Amino acid sequence: MTDLNSNKAAVLGGGSFGTAVANILAANGFQVDLWMRNEKTIEDIKQERENKQYLPGVKLHDNIQATGDLESAIKDSQVLFYAVPSKSFRELVERTQGLVVPEQMLISTTKGIEPEGFNLMSDILKGTFPSNPIGVISGPNLAKEIGQGQPAATVIGSKDKRVRDFIQKSLSCNFFRVYANADMYGVELGGALKNIYAVITGMAAALGFGENTKATLITRSLAEMSRFAVSQGANPMTFLGLAGVGDLVATCVSPLSRNYRVGYAVGKGETLEQAVEALGEVAEGVNTVRYIYHEANEQGIYMPLASALYAVLFEGAEVSQLANSLMTGEYNTDVEFSLPRGA
Ligand SMILES: NC(=O)C1=CN([C@@H]2O[C@H](COP(=O)(O)OP(=O)(O)OC[C@H]3O[C@@H](n4cnc5c(N)ncnc54)[C@H](O)[C@@H]3O)[C@@H](O)[C@H]2O)C=CC1
Ligand SMILES: O=C(CO)COP(=O)(O)O
Protein backbone atom coordinates (compact mmCIF):
# COMPACT_ATOMS: atom_id res chain seq x y z
CA MET A 1 0.00 0.00 0.00
CA THR A 2 1.19 3.48 -0.86
CA ASP A 3 0.97 6.17 1.83
CA LEU A 4 1.36 9.67 0.44
CA ASN A 5 0.70 11.37 3.79
CA SER A 6 4.11 10.48 5.09
CA ASN A 7 5.96 13.76 4.46
CA LYS A 8 8.45 11.88 2.36
CA ALA A 9 10.10 13.23 -0.78
CA ALA A 10 12.56 11.79 -3.26
CA VAL A 11 15.30 13.51 -5.21
CA LEU A 12 16.52 11.35 -8.07
CA GLY A 13 20.08 12.30 -8.99
CA GLY A 14 22.90 13.08 -6.57
CA GLY A 15 24.64 15.88 -8.50
CA SER A 16 25.11 19.42 -7.29
CA PHE A 17 21.58 20.68 -7.82
CA GLY A 18 19.77 17.53 -6.64
CA THR A 19 21.80 17.67 -3.44
CA ALA A 20 21.01 21.38 -2.90
CA VAL A 21 17.27 20.76 -3.40
CA ALA A 22 17.35 17.76 -1.05
CA ASN A 23 18.90 19.90 1.68
CA ILE A 24 16.11 22.50 1.48
CA LEU A 25 13.36 19.87 1.51
CA ALA A 26 14.98 18.17 4.49
CA ALA A 27 15.30 21.42 6.43
CA ASN A 28 11.60 22.01 5.71
CA GLY A 29 10.71 18.78 7.49
CA PHE A 30 10.60 16.22 4.68
CA GLN A 31 12.22 12.83 5.05
CA VAL A 32 14.24 12.90 1.84
CA ASP A 33 15.59 9.94 -0.06
CA LEU A 34 18.42 11.23 -2.24
CA TRP A 35 18.78 8.52 -4.85
CA MET A 36 21.99 8.11 -6.79
CA ARG A 37 23.68 5.36 -8.74
CA ASN A 38 27.21 5.64 -7.40
CA GLU A 39 27.66 3.30 -4.41
CA LYS A 40 30.84 4.97 -3.25
CA THR A 41 29.17 8.40 -3.12
CA ILE A 42 26.30 6.88 -1.14
CA GLU A 43 28.73 5.43 1.42
CA ASP A 44 30.68 8.70 1.59
CA ILE A 45 27.49 10.70 2.20
CA LYS A 46 26.39 8.27 4.90
CA GLN A 47 29.70 8.62 6.72
CA GLU A 48 30.64 12.23 6.08
CA ARG A 49 27.16 13.85 5.73
CA GLU A 50 28.54 15.74 2.73
CA ASN A 51 28.45 15.21 -1.06
CA LYS A 52 32.16 15.83 -1.47
CA GLN A 53 32.22 15.32 -5.21
CA TYR A 54 29.33 17.56 -6.26
CA LEU A 55 28.58 19.94 -3.40
CA PRO A 56 31.69 20.11 -1.22
CA GLY A 57 31.61 22.13 1.97
CA VAL A 58 27.85 21.83 2.48
CA LYS A 59 26.67 19.83 5.48
CA LEU A 60 23.73 17.60 4.63
CA HIS A 61 20.65 17.68 6.84
CA ASP A 62 19.97 14.67 9.05
CA ASN A 63 16.62 14.12 7.29
CA ILE A 64 18.43 13.13 4.10
CA GLN A 65 19.09 9.48 3.41
CA ALA A 66 21.41 8.71 0.49
CA THR A 67 20.27 5.54 -1.22
CA GLY A 68 20.78 3.40 -4.31
CA ASP A 69 17.38 1.74 -3.92
CA LEU A 70 15.12 3.46 -6.44
CA GLU A 71 11.99 1.53 -5.47
CA SER A 72 12.16 2.44 -1.79
CA ALA A 73 13.11 6.05 -2.62
CA ILE A 74 9.95 6.46 -4.69
CA LYS A 75 7.58 4.54 -2.44
CA ASP A 76 5.38 6.85 -0.33
CA SER A 77 7.06 10.03 -1.62
CA GLN A 78 4.60 12.86 -2.18
CA VAL A 79 6.89 14.42 -4.75
CA LEU A 80 9.73 13.21 -6.94
CA PHE A 81 12.39 15.61 -8.25
CA TYR A 82 14.16 14.35 -11.36
CA ALA A 83 17.61 15.97 -11.17
CA VAL A 84 19.91 14.38 -13.75
CA PRO A 85 21.43 15.84 -16.93
CA SER A 86 19.11 15.89 -19.95
CA LYS A 87 20.97 13.14 -21.77
CA SER A 88 20.11 10.72 -18.91
CA PHE A 89 16.61 12.02 -18.24
CA ARG A 90 14.56 9.59 -20.35
CA GLU A 91 16.59 6.63 -19.13
CA LEU A 92 15.88 7.61 -15.52
CA VAL A 93 12.18 8.27 -16.21
CA GLU A 94 11.88 4.83 -17.81
CA ARG A 95 13.54 3.22 -14.79
CA THR A 96 10.88 4.79 -12.59
CA GLN A 97 8.01 3.39 -14.70
CA GLY A 98 6.08 0.82 -12.67
CA LEU A 99 7.27 2.41 -9.41
CA VAL A 100 5.45 5.75 -9.66
CA VAL A 101 1.76 5.98 -8.69
CA PRO A 102 -0.57 8.50 -10.41
CA GLU A 103 -0.96 10.80 -7.36
CA GLN A 104 2.76 11.51 -7.03
CA MET A 105 3.92 14.94 -8.20
CA LEU A 106 6.77 14.78 -10.69
CA ILE A 107 9.09 17.77 -10.96
CA SER A 108 11.98 18.25 -13.38
CA THR A 109 14.97 20.37 -12.35
CA THR A 110 16.77 19.68 -15.63
CA LYS A 111 17.70 22.48 -18.03
CA GLY A 112 18.09 20.78 -21.35
CA ILE A 113 16.45 19.38 -24.48
CA GLU A 114 16.17 15.85 -25.86
CA PRO A 115 17.31 15.90 -29.50
CA GLU A 116 15.06 13.20 -30.95
CA GLY A 117 11.66 14.80 -31.34
CA PHE A 118 12.95 18.01 -29.74
CA ASN A 119 11.36 17.14 -26.39
CA LEU A 120 11.64 19.11 -23.18
CA MET A 121 11.89 17.14 -19.95
CA SER A 122 8.25 17.84 -19.09
CA ASP A 123 7.31 16.27 -22.45
CA ILE A 124 9.14 13.11 -21.42
CA LEU A 125 7.40 13.08 -18.02
CA LYS A 126 3.97 13.73 -19.57
CA GLY A 127 4.49 11.10 -22.25
CA THR A 128 5.45 8.48 -19.69
CA PHE A 129 3.11 9.45 -16.84
CA PRO A 130 0.04 11.09 -18.46
CA SER A 131 -2.03 10.98 -15.25
CA ASN A 132 0.51 12.50 -12.87
CA PRO A 133 0.68 16.16 -11.84
CA ILE A 134 3.82 17.59 -13.44
CA GLY A 135 5.97 20.70 -13.00
CA VAL A 136 9.43 22.13 -13.58
CA ILE A 137 11.59 24.38 -11.45
CA SER A 138 13.94 26.87 -13.03
CA GLY A 139 15.55 30.17 -12.11
CA PRO A 140 18.84 31.76 -11.04
CA ASN A 141 19.88 28.79 -8.94
CA LEU A 142 23.61 28.20 -8.94
CA ALA A 143 23.77 25.12 -6.75
CA LYS A 144 26.83 26.16 -4.78
CA GLU A 145 25.26 29.44 -3.65
CA ILE A 146 22.04 27.68 -2.68
CA GLY A 147 24.04 25.09 -0.76
CA GLN A 148 25.64 27.94 1.18
CA GLY A 149 22.23 29.40 2.04
CA GLN A 150 22.63 32.61 0.03
CA PRO A 151 19.27 34.25 -0.75
CA ALA A 152 17.85 33.23 -4.12
CA ALA A 153 14.56 32.45 -5.83
CA THR A 154 13.16 30.01 -8.34
CA VAL A 155 10.00 29.47 -10.38
CA ILE A 156 7.66 26.52 -10.23
CA GLY A 157 6.18 26.18 -13.70
CA SER A 158 3.06 24.03 -13.83
CA LYS A 159 -0.41 24.15 -15.31
CA ASP A 160 -1.67 22.49 -12.13
CA LYS A 161 -2.37 24.87 -9.25
CA ARG A 162 -1.98 22.07 -6.70
CA VAL A 163 1.58 21.53 -7.90
CA ARG A 164 2.39 25.24 -7.80
CA ASP A 165 1.01 25.61 -4.28
CA PHE A 166 2.67 22.45 -3.00
CA ILE A 167 6.10 23.34 -4.35
CA GLN A 168 5.88 26.92 -3.11
CA LYS A 169 5.19 25.56 0.36
CA SER A 170 7.68 22.72 0.28
CA LEU A 171 10.72 24.52 -1.12
CA SER A 172 10.41 28.01 0.34
CA CYS A 173 12.57 28.85 3.32
CA ASN A 174 14.33 31.87 4.78
CA PHE A 175 16.90 31.96 1.96
CA PHE A 176 14.93 30.46 -0.93
CA ARG A 177 11.73 31.86 -2.39
CA VAL A 178 9.51 30.12 -4.93
CA TYR A 179 7.40 32.07 -7.44
CA ALA A 180 4.65 30.51 -9.56
CA ASN A 181 4.05 30.49 -13.32
CA ALA A 182 1.48 28.49 -15.31
CA ASP A 183 3.58 28.73 -18.50
CA MET A 184 5.51 25.53 -17.81
CA TYR A 185 6.96 25.35 -21.30
CA GLY A 186 8.26 28.94 -21.15
CA VAL A 187 9.84 28.38 -17.74
CA GLU A 188 11.52 25.24 -18.98
CA LEU A 189 12.74 26.76 -22.24
CA GLY A 190 14.18 29.73 -20.34
CA GLY A 191 16.34 27.37 -18.28
CA ALA A 192 17.49 25.34 -21.27
CA LEU A 193 18.19 28.21 -23.67
CA LYS A 194 20.13 30.51 -21.34
CA ASN A 195 22.92 27.92 -21.15
CA ILE A 196 23.79 28.70 -24.78
CA TYR A 197 24.28 32.37 -23.97
CA ALA A 198 26.27 31.64 -20.82
CA VAL A 199 28.81 29.83 -23.01
CA ILE A 200 28.94 32.91 -25.25
CA THR A 201 29.37 35.40 -22.40
CA GLY A 202 32.11 33.18 -20.96
CA MET A 203 33.89 33.53 -24.30
CA ALA A 204 33.34 37.30 -24.28
CA ALA A 205 34.89 37.51 -20.82
CA ALA A 206 37.90 35.51 -22.01
CA LEU A 207 38.33 37.94 -24.87
CA GLY A 208 38.41 40.82 -22.38
CA PHE A 209 35.28 42.65 -23.49
CA GLY A 210 33.86 45.23 -21.11
CA GLU A 211 30.49 45.87 -19.57
CA ASN A 212 28.80 47.49 -22.59
CA THR A 213 29.55 44.42 -24.64
CA LYS A 214 28.37 42.05 -21.91
CA ALA A 215 25.12 44.00 -21.38
CA THR A 216 24.47 44.09 -25.12
CA LEU A 217 25.14 40.37 -25.40
CA ILE A 218 22.86 39.48 -22.49
CA THR A 219 20.04 41.68 -23.75
CA ARG A 220 20.23 40.41 -27.33
CA SER A 221 20.43 36.88 -25.93
CA LEU A 222 17.13 37.53 -24.18
CA ALA A 223 15.63 38.75 -27.45
CA GLU A 224 16.86 35.66 -29.25
CA MET A 225 15.79 33.10 -26.67
CA SER A 226 12.35 34.62 -26.20
CA ARG A 227 11.90 34.75 -30.02
CA PHE A 228 12.60 31.03 -30.19
CA ALA A 229 10.46 30.18 -27.16
CA VAL A 230 7.48 32.15 -28.43
CA SER A 231 7.71 30.27 -31.74
CA GLN A 232 7.28 27.09 -29.66
CA GLY A 233 4.18 28.38 -27.89
CA ALA A 234 5.70 29.98 -24.78
CA ASN A 235 4.45 33.27 -23.34
CA PRO A 236 6.97 36.11 -23.96
CA MET A 237 6.14 37.63 -20.56
CA THR A 238 7.68 34.58 -18.86
CA PHE A 239 11.06 35.85 -20.06
CA LEU A 240 10.72 38.98 -17.93
CA GLY A 241 10.73 36.78 -14.85
CA LEU A 242 13.22 34.73 -12.87
CA ALA A 243 13.24 31.84 -15.31
CA GLY A 244 14.11 34.26 -18.15
CA VAL A 245 16.05 37.40 -17.22
CA GLY A 246 16.88 36.05 -13.75
CA ASP A 247 18.56 32.86 -14.81
CA LEU A 248 20.15 34.44 -17.89
CA VAL A 249 21.86 37.11 -15.80
CA ALA A 250 23.03 34.73 -13.06
CA THR A 251 24.47 32.24 -15.51
CA CYS A 252 25.98 34.79 -17.89
CA VAL A 253 27.96 36.64 -15.21
CA SER A 254 29.07 33.88 -12.87
CA PRO A 255 32.24 31.81 -13.07
CA LEU A 256 30.30 29.30 -10.93
CA SER A 257 28.28 28.49 -14.06
CA ARG A 258 29.64 25.41 -15.81
CA ASN A 259 28.43 26.74 -19.16
CA TYR A 260 30.20 30.06 -18.62
CA ARG A 261 33.36 28.18 -17.63
CA VAL A 262 33.34 26.07 -20.80
CA GLY A 263 32.93 29.24 -22.88
CA TYR A 264 35.73 30.96 -20.97
CA ALA A 265 38.10 28.03 -21.47
CA VAL A 266 37.38 27.84 -25.22
CA GLY A 267 37.79 31.63 -25.41
CA LYS A 268 41.24 31.19 -23.86
CA GLY A 269 42.23 28.71 -26.52
CA GLU A 270 41.28 25.29 -25.15
CA THR A 271 39.46 22.88 -27.43
CA LEU A 272 35.84 22.09 -26.59
CA GLU A 273 36.85 18.56 -25.64
CA GLN A 274 39.53 19.82 -23.23
CA ALA A 275 37.13 22.30 -21.67
CA VAL A 276 34.37 19.73 -21.13
CA GLU A 277 36.78 17.12 -19.83
CA ALA A 278 38.33 19.54 -17.32
CA LEU A 279 34.88 20.54 -16.06
CA GLY A 280 33.85 17.01 -15.02
CA GLU A 281 30.23 18.12 -14.62
CA VAL A 282 27.44 18.75 -17.08
CA ALA A 283 27.42 21.89 -19.28
CA GLU A 284 24.06 21.49 -20.99
CA GLY A 285 24.55 24.46 -23.36
CA VAL A 286 27.06 22.54 -25.49
CA ASN A 287 24.43 20.08 -26.68
CA THR A 288 21.53 22.52 -26.48
CA VAL A 289 23.12 24.86 -29.02
CA ARG A 290 23.52 21.93 -31.41
CA TYR A 291 19.83 21.02 -31.24
CA ILE A 292 18.61 24.63 -31.29
CA TYR A 293 20.78 25.50 -34.27
CA HIS A 294 19.21 22.74 -36.37
CA GLU A 295 15.69 23.38 -35.11
CA ALA A 296 15.96 27.14 -35.72
CA ASN A 297 17.29 26.53 -39.24
CA GLU A 298 14.49 24.10 -40.00
CA GLN A 299 11.85 26.47 -38.70
CA GLY A 300 13.44 29.64 -40.14
CA ILE A 301 13.92 31.33 -36.75
CA TYR A 302 16.56 34.07 -36.74
CA MET A 303 19.18 33.24 -34.08
CA PRO A 304 22.49 34.88 -35.02
CA LEU A 305 24.17 34.37 -31.63
CA ALA A 306 23.31 30.68 -31.35
CA SER A 307 24.41 30.19 -34.98
CA ALA A 308 27.73 31.91 -34.31
CA LEU A 309 28.35 29.77 -31.24
CA TYR A 310 27.56 26.65 -33.24
CA ALA A 311 30.10 27.73 -35.87
CA VAL A 312 32.78 28.26 -33.21
CA LEU A 313 32.15 25.01 -31.32
CA PHE A 314 31.52 22.65 -34.23
CA GLU A 315 32.71 24.22 -37.47
CA GLY A 316 36.11 25.60 -36.51
CA ALA A 317 35.16 29.29 -36.72
CA GLU A 318 37.31 31.74 -34.75
CA VAL A 319 35.97 32.87 -31.35
CA SER A 320 36.39 36.47 -32.52
CA GLN A 321 33.58 35.86 -35.04
CA LEU A 322 31.11 35.99 -32.15
CA ALA A 323 31.57 39.75 -31.98
CA ASN A 324 30.95 39.96 -35.74
CA SER A 325 27.68 38.12 -35.37
CA LEU A 326 26.57 40.66 -32.80
CA MET A 327 27.54 43.61 -34.98
CA THR A 328 26.73 42.51 -38.51
CA GLY A 329 23.32 40.86 -38.27
CA GLU A 330 20.25 42.23 -40.00
CA TYR A 331 18.94 45.60 -38.77
CA ASN A 332 16.43 44.80 -36.11
CA THR A 333 14.05 46.36 -33.63
CA ASP A 334 14.98 46.53 -29.94
CA VAL A 335 12.00 44.75 -28.39
CA GLU A 336 10.19 42.87 -31.11
CA PHE A 337 7.11 42.22 -28.96
CA SER A 338 6.66 45.99 -28.88
CA LEU A 339 7.82 46.84 -32.45
CA PRO A 340 7.79 43.73 -34.69
CA ARG A 341 10.91 42.84 -36.67
CA GLY A 342 10.96 44.52 -40.07
CA ALA A 343 8.38 47.15 -39.05
N1 LIG B 1 24.16 22.82 -10.72
C1 LIG B 1 23.37 23.87 -10.83
O1 LIG B 1 23.72 24.99 -10.40
C2 LIG B 1 22.02 23.70 -11.44
C3 LIG B 1 21.75 22.67 -12.31
N2 LIG B 1 20.52 22.57 -12.88
C4 LIG B 1 20.25 21.51 -13.84
O2 LIG B 1 20.08 20.29 -13.16
C5 LIG B 1 20.44 19.18 -13.99
C6 LIG B 1 21.38 18.31 -13.23
O3 LIG B 1 22.49 19.09 -12.99
P1 LIG B 1 23.52 18.95 -11.79
O4 LIG B 1 22.93 18.37 -10.59
O5 LIG B 1 24.14 20.28 -11.67
O6 LIG B 1 24.53 17.96 -12.51
P2 LIG B 1 25.92 17.40 -12.02
O7 LIG B 1 26.81 17.37 -13.19
O8 LIG B 1 26.36 18.12 -10.80
O9 LIG B 1 25.53 15.92 -11.59
C7 LIG B 1 24.82 15.05 -12.40
C8 LIG B 1 24.36 13.88 -11.54
O10 LIG B 1 23.51 13.04 -12.32
C9 LIG B 1 23.97 11.71 -12.19
N3 LIG B 1 23.60 10.96 -13.38
C10 LIG B 1 23.99 11.17 -14.65
N4 LIG B 1 23.45 10.25 -15.46
C11 LIG B 1 22.71 9.42 -14.66
C12 LIG B 1 21.91 8.28 -14.90
N5 LIG B 1 21.79 7.77 -16.13
N6 LIG B 1 21.29 7.69 -13.86
C13 LIG B 1 21.45 8.19 -12.62
N7 LIG B 1 22.18 9.28 -12.32
C14 LIG B 1 22.81 9.88 -13.34
C15 LIG B 1 25.47 11.84 -12.00
O11 LIG B 1 25.99 10.65 -11.42
C16 LIG B 1 25.53 13.02 -11.05
O12 LIG B 1 25.29 12.63 -9.74
C17 LIG B 1 21.07 19.83 -15.26
O13 LIG B 1 20.15 19.81 -16.32
C18 LIG B 1 21.36 21.26 -14.84
O14 LIG B 1 21.28 22.16 -15.94
C19 LIG B 1 19.53 23.39 -12.55
C20 LIG B 1 19.73 24.44 -11.68
C21 LIG B 1 21.01 24.70 -11.10
O1 LIG C 1 21.30 26.67 -14.19
C1 LIG C 1 22.15 27.08 -13.46
C2 LIG C 1 21.96 28.27 -12.61
O2 LIG C 1 20.64 28.68 -12.58
C3 LIG C 1 23.45 26.41 -13.42
O3 LIG C 1 24.18 26.79 -14.53
P1 LIG C 1 25.34 25.86 -15.06
O4 LIG C 1 24.71 24.57 -15.47
O5 LIG C 1 25.92 26.63 -16.20
O6 LIG C 1 26.30 25.68 -13.92
From TrEMBL:
Protein residues bound to NADPH:
S16, F17, R37, Y54, K111, A143, R258, V282, E284
Give all residue intervals belonging to the Glycerol-3-phosphate dehydrogenase NAD-dependent C-terminal domain.
183-322
Q: SUPFAM superfamilies from the xrefs? A: 6-phosphogluconate dehydrogenase C-terminal domain-like (SSF48179), NAD(P)-binding Rossmann-fold domains (SSF51735)
Q: Which residues form the active site?
A: K194
Record key words, sorted: Cytoplasm, Lipid biosynthesis, Lipid metabolism, NAD, NADP, Nucleotide-binding, Oxidoreductase, Phospholipid biosynthesis, Phospholipid metabolism
**Does the entry feature the keyword RNA-binding, yes or no?**
no
Localization terms from the record: Cytoplasm
A cellular component annotation (GO) from this entry: cytosol
Q: Name one Pfam family in it.
A: NAD_Gly3P_dh_N
- Write the Enzyme Commission number(s) for this entry: 1.1.1.94
Which of the seven top EC classes does this enzyme belong to? oxidoreductase
Molecular function via GO = glycerol-3-phosphate dehydrogenase (NAD+) activity; glycerol-3-phosphate dehydrogenase (NADP+) activity; NAD binding
Domain Glycerol-3-phosphate dehydrogenase NAD-dependent N-terminal as annotated: residue spans: 8-162
User: So where does substrate get bound?
Assistant: K111, R258, N259
Please state which protein family the record places this protein in: Belongs to the NAD-dependent glycerol-3-phosphate dehydrogenase family.
The record ties this protein, via HAMAP family, to: NAD_Glyc3P_dehydrog
Function recorded in the entry = Catalyzes the reduction of the glycolytic intermediate dihydroxyacetone phosphate (DHAP) to sn-glycerol 3-phosphate (G3P), the key precursor for phospholipid synthesis.
Q: What protein am I looking at?
A: Glycerol-3-phosphate dehydrogenase [NAD(P)+]
Q: Which gene encodes it?
A: gpsA
